Amino acid sequence: MNGSKIKEEEEEEKTLKPSSIQLFQSTIAKISVAQICQSIGFTSFQTSALESFSNIATRYLETLAKSASLSANSSGRTECNLFDVIQAIEDMNSIRGFVGATNMKKSLLKSGVLKEIRSFVRFVDEIPFAKPIPRRNLKKSLVLSRVEDQVQRFSHIPAWLPSLPDVSTYKKIQKEERIGFNEVEKDRGVVDCSVEKNVNVEKKESFFLPVKRPKVKFKFGLNSNLGVNVELGTRNGVCRGGKRVSCHDLSEEDDIKSFKRKR
Amino acid sequence: MNHQPSHEGRQDDDSALSDFLASLMDYTPTIPDELVEHYVAKSGFQCPDVRLIRLVAVATQKFIAEVATDALQHCKARQASVVKDKRDKQQKDKRLTLTMEDLSKALHEYGVNMKHQEYFADNPSSGVDPVSREE
């Protein structure tokens, strides 16, 4: 019984419904919006009004972030900086207008919007959120794994690229040398990493697919022999006794190639 | 014609700005950092700096506060116009309620067109309210 209970709990954690996550987010947003409204002088609210207001607030937040990241991306960066954020805030405020919006040559640091925000921070009382929110540990593990990746990374690969595939896909285990795309980079003179230099012999072979690969199995149903149309992917008793083909070694392919050439 | 800022002015600006950003470290916006980070990450905003997250949070808070203030003004104005006729109702309706009507009016000025049902039965009392019926 215990085991099954634990399993159930695990499943519950895994299938933490997106709706419940959304509910959590929207509830937090609602609470903070309600706090702000209360600080301004409202004493009560219609449920629908609060819901739509918090929805609009989160949309505002998302739009702001989107436009900031867009301006960062368009100038060739992945991380946003202060200027992107100010630009985004100005964009969001441009509907109503703000002081100094007419002067296009003004530095962003002098932006009227920023001044407004500054005075807002100065004059409006600080109302911290009602309750501390637990952070998920997921982020920590993510960061850790990233750091581990970075250790294995080479200096010339930018951090934002996804990590290389598993080592076994491009590295011979017995002979310690890299083949595959690292080799390509070496030819271009990009690599400054610790690739051993006795590669000259095998350089021409380097464009082969990786040597170690998982086995690939094919199964042919008997029914094709019988001339009966059976849908693919049905693996029921009818298919039993099908022919099994597995290819696992490059050397075989080489043999075949050479055989073909001889012919 | 002279658009170029003087060097001193720029330095002043820079120092004021960095002071402001530093003050954000101590300032806790009402919208919690966690929520902001979540939504911001969802839309592709990548930034390790807490101050910028705070800046985004403060900007959003300012937006909410402004809209709420406008809604409050609408609410007060509406109440004031109604209450003249019915003094006895004044006691009942004295509390300030954030309604869809005021909110959509306030949001309209900010470029948000919010359409809402004329009659929204989320609450048994919402249909009975004579004040909102009058309009």
Largest sheet descriptor of chain A = 2 strands, antiparallel
Q: So what's the overall shape of chain B? A: elongated
Annotated CATH architecture of the domain at 20-123 in chain A: Orthogonal Bundle
Number of strands of chain A: 3
Strand fraction of chain B:
under 5%
**Uncertain residue segments of chain B:** 1-5
Estimate the global geometry of chain A from the Cα principal axes. Answer: extended
- CATH topology of the domain at 20-123 in chain A: the name is Histone, subunit A
Structural class of chain B: mainly alpha
Number of helices of chain A: 9
Biggest interface, and residues per chain? A-B, 65 and 65 residues
Mean pLDDT score of chain A: 69
**Distance, first to last CA of chain B:** 52 Å
What is the count of DSSP helices of chain B, taking H or I runs of 4+ residues?
6
Uncertain segments of chain A are 176-205, 223-240
Secondary-structure element order of chain B, N to C: HHHHEHH
Order of helices and strands of chain A: HHEHHHHHEHEH
Instruction: Work out the oligomeric state of the chains in this entry.
Output: heterodimer
Secondary-structure content class of chain A:
mainly alpha
Protein name (chain B): Transcription initiation factor TFIID subunit 10
Family (chain B): Belongs to the TAF10 family.
Pfam family, one (chain B): TAF10
Keywords (chain B): Initiation factor, Nucleus, Protein biosynthesis, Transcription, Transcription regulation
